[in-house]
Specification:
This protein has 80 residues and is mainly alpha-helical. The chain has one domain. The chain is built from 3 helices and no strands. It starts with 6 loop residues before the first helix and ends with a helix.
Length: 80
Amino acid sequence: MTGLLPQVARDTIESQSAYSASESFGLVALVLLVVLLLEQEALRAMRTGPDRAKALSAFVVPLLLAVMLTVTLRITALLP
């Protein structure tokens, strides 16, 4: 799989510490969660079929748990 990544991206990933890598993961997950929640609300406003909302919920719920876990671990790391 690493053969698919350009060398610049590979160097960037390998040079990051675990702390900064988890920070970027948290940011990407949070942005993705916001986009999916906005899409879910747009589907609800358009009154589309419930199948689309259920399919989107299948992605939103696990991503919400991942974001909440990331935020919780970040906050506990700041506490003395």
